[in-house]
Amino acid sequence: MNYLQVIAEIWKSGAEMNLLETGEIELLHADRVPAEILNAAESVFGEIEEWFKSWTNATAVEKTMRNILLQYCGWTKNTKIETWLNAEEAKTFLVHDWTVALAENGWKELYEDYRKYENDNSKKIAEEIYQNACTYMRSLK
């Protein structure tokens, strides 16, 4: 099991895994995680830590796209993103188009970091998705 599979399984179990400002990984509700997943996490912990730290300097667009993908895959629950995707069907298709653009650039495995497969086209779509999401969220206020 690779590190993204482990992270996904931890999140799907209802636990939370985050990077603290101190640079340490926090695992909340570890009791919800099956023992075999915790054991798998130990063997790939360095990669898990590296992945979380790799997001430290990410832009708002990049972080938003990560959160959308995590929701889209069912790894995490984000009610704001879920509400937006359900309210704006065309945006769901746009997220699909973004994943297709990544796939056309070689992203074939869900449990592989998609960022290696970004190109100008996928970044353009991501920017459009981000702008639409921001506009929608501002309209709720």
Short key terms for the protein model shown above:
141 residues; mainly alpha; two-stranded antiparallel sheet
Written overview of the protein:
The chain has 141 residues and is mostly helical. The chain has helices at residues 3-12, 35-43, 45-53, 60-73, 79-87, 89-104, 120-139; strands at 16-19, 25-28. Strands 1-2 form a two-stranded antiparallel sheet. Helix 4 (60-73) packs across helix 7. The chain is globular.
Secondary structure blueprint with pairings:
Blueprint: H1 3-12, E1 16-19, E2 25-28, H2 35-43, H3 45-53, H4 60-73, H5 79-87, H6 89-104, H7 120-139
Antiparallel strand pairs: 1-2
**Broad structural category:** mainly alpha
Secondary-structure element pattern, one letter each: HEEHHHHHH
- What composes the largest sheet? 2 strands, antiparallel
Integer average pLDDT:
94
How many helices? The count is 7
Strand content: 5-15%
Helical proportion?
55-70%
The count of β-strands is 2
Low-confidence stretches: none
Whole-Å distance between the termini? 42 Å
Query: Mind telling me the C-alpha Rg?
Result: 16 Å
